[in-house]
């Protein structure tokens, strides 16, 4: 298999797409995602783990909100991974992740994920190359465990935002009062390491046993549609069915 090069992956929608039609199609798809998720929850044979990774402002929160808007919170759980706490640092790096994996019938959404521990920590040289390799092996083994032992489908999305678009979106957080709350000085600091991040992301894409899906993320309308289409495809393939009573109980 040829190596993936991020510089050759698209960040924008194909030309001549009708934006309004795509948004209308996404609305239809997301509604069907809600119906399929209900059946999966009732059937309790499958589970789904959705991983969103991408640079700051690539839209991890936005796309998760749009994709699962018709799914009930009781069977759809989202978790945003930030800097580990002292307790989490005192354990192995997967310790904080495993309890958040979905049980049968549920969907778990990771906004950032266990891959942070082979991305930001590697960029800043907080861990050695040897430890990075060991962690990738552990990640592959963990995802394989979820798949084979609990019938969990792992969907991993790389939100591929261009350097130019990120700069515009980060500046909007400064210029637009309604987006000021999103601004963090640290996002600009991390931007200085863009090339290092792309190298680390590239290695993750190439070394993962469960493949990543590249999502062109420069345009929100296409990004949201693209992700919804992939989630919908996976749920349809599961073909979940509502359980039917084999015998009808009678009551006096």
What does this 3D model show about the protein?
The protein has one domain (18-238): P-loop containing nucleotide triphosphate hydrolases (Rossmann fold), CATH 3.40.50. It is 46% helix and 13% strand. It has helices spanning 19-43, 60-67, 86-89, 120-123, 129-150, 163-175, 185-191, 194-207, 220-238; strands at 47-54, 76-80, 107-111, 152-160, 212-216. The radius of gyration is 19 Å and the shape is globular.
Compose a concise summary of this entry.
The protein is an alpha/beta fold.
CATH architecture: 3-Layer(aba) Sandwich
Fraction of residues in β-strands:
5-15%
Low-confidence blocks of residues: none
Give the CATH superfamily. Answer: P-loop containing nucleotide triphosphate hydrolases
The first-level CATH class is given as Alpha Beta
Provide the succession of SSEs.
Answer: HEHEHEHHEHHHEH
What is the total tally of β strands? 5
Largest sheet, spatial ordering of strands = 2-3-1-4-5
Q: How many separate domains? A: 1
Biggest pleated sheet: 5 strands, parallel
What would you call the structural class?
Answer: alpha/beta
Mean pLDDT: 96
The CATH topology is given as Rossmann fold
């Amino acid at each position: 298999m040829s190596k993936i090069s991020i510089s050759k992956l698209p960040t924008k929608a194909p030309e001549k797409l009708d934006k309004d039609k795509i948004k209308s199609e996404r609305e239809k798809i997301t509604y069907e995602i809600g119906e399929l998720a209900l059946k999966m929850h009732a059937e309790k044979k499958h589970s789904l783990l959705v991983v969103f990774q991408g640079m700051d402002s690539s839209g991890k929160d936005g796309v998760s909100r749009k994709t699962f808007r018709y799914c009930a919170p009781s069977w759809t759980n989202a978790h945003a991974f930030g800097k580990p706490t002292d307790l989490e640092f005192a354990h192995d790096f997967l310790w904080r992740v495993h309890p958040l994996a979905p049980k049968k019938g549920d969907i778990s959404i990771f906004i950032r994920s266990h891959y942070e521990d082979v991305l930001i920590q590697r960029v800043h040289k907080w861990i050695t190359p040897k430890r990075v390799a060991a962690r990738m092996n552990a990640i592959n083994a963990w995802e394989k465990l979820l798949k084979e032992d609990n019938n969990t489908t792992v969907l991993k999305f790389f939100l591929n935002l261009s350097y130019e678009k990120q700069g515009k979106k980060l500046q909007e957080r400064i210029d637009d009062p309604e987006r000021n709350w999103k601004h963090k000085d640290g996002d600009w600091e991390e931007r200085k390491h863009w090339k290092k991040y792309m190298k680390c992301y590239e290695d993750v894409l190439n070394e993962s046993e469960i493949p990543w899906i590249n999502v062109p993320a420069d345009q929100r309308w296409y990004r949201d549609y693209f992700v919804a289409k992939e989630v919908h495809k996976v749920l349809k393939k599961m073909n979940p069915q509502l359980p039917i009573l084999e015998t009808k109980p009678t009551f006096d």
